[in-house]
Design goal:
single chain, Creatine Amidinohydrolase, four-stranded antiparallel sheet, binds 2-amino-4-trifluoromethylsulfanyl-butyric acid, binds cobalt (II) ion
Length: about 280
């Protein structure tokens, strides 16, 4: 395993790419309403990236080993879709929950972030799943600092999530990110304290837990498009994603912007000194 350490120029490049990914999600937010199709959102995202931000949509044509080229400029995962949903012509409807996951490349650096969106009024259970998943991501982020191990991060996310009665998807994880979209290390959202890689200043990686209301098991989506993943029991699934930098004393969240949802109180109260944001 070889984990890249970013120097000052790399960190600055990652800050810019990260902020742009978050600003793209800000831009898309008002469009996520009943009646809009995920293809329409994909086109809005594509045009904003290419024409306004001058970023390259990293997902478009992305083809990891064993996959066909991904055909769109973002991923849209609705309700029981876990991840990698491909935008289509089906309108969103009141009560849906949808994850929009965007990755832009700026000056060679990748910024990767996703949020959950509530389409009109949604059920109490769906809302709670989205909130708990957001907090689970932050439970992982707030522990990032030199000397901590990836197993500590996974353990924090898993124990928090399971205490709320939800389950952590095991098959997909966060990842190192930089000049490459997916670099070492793998950032598991479950684990055991004191295990796996030790964090060092200059590492950049994502934390992006996928959390299910029901069982944790997943399967390929019925579209058989080679990408879309759904919960095996068809229960709702949620995901949030930030790109983070390990600093000398803690962490910096790179994918923040004016429209980012408020950081949970348990983060700001417990580690305020570690919270360095660039919004
Ligand atoms: N953005 C996703 C992630 O968080 C990866 C999507 S790859 C795609 O890692 F090809 F499906 F777009
Ligand atoms: Co992503
Ligand atoms: Co990612």
């Amino acid at each position: 395993m070889s984990i890249t350490i970013k120097d000052e120029a790399g960190i600055e490049g990652m800050r810019v790419a990260g902020r742009l990914a978050s600003e793209l999600l800000d831009y898309l937010t008002p469009f996520v309403k009943p009646g809009v199709t995920t293809n329409q959102i994909d086109k809005l995202a594509h045009d904003y990236m290419v024409q306004v931000q001058g970023t390259i949509p990293a997902t478009l044509g992305y083809q990891p080993p064993g996959y066909g080229p991904y055909p769109k400029s973002l991923c849209s995962s609705v309700n029981h879709q876990v991840c990698h949903g491909i935008p289509n012509d089906k309108p969103l409807k009141k009560g849906d929950i949808v994850n929009l996951d965007v990755t832009g490349i700026k000056d060679g650096w990748h910024g990767d972030s996703s949020r959950m969106f509530l389409v009109g009024e949604v059920s109490i259970a769906a809302k709670r799943l989205c909130q708990v998943t957001y907090e689970a991501m932050w439970q992982g982020i707030m522990r990032v600092k030199p000397g901590v191990r990836l197993g500590d991060i996974g353990f924090a996310i898993q124990t928090f999530t399971e205490k709320q009665g939800f389950t952590v998807v095991r098959e997909f994880c966060g990842h190192g990110i930089g000049v490459k979209f997916h670099e070492d290390p793998q950032v598991l959202h479950y684990g055991r304290p004191g295990t796996l890689e030790e964090l060092k200043p200059g590492m950049t990686f994502t934390i992006e837990p996928m959390i299910n209301i029901g069982r944790r098991d997943i399967k390929d989506g019925p579209e058989k498009d080679g990408w879309s993943i759904v919960t095996r029991d068809h229960s709702l699934s949620a995901q949030w994603e930030h790109t983070v930098l390990v600093t000398e004393t803690g962490y910096e969240v790179l994918t923040l912007s004016a429209g980012s949802p408020p950081i949970p109180a348990f983060v700001t109260q417990s580690n305020p000194a570690q919270l360095s944001v660039n919004a």
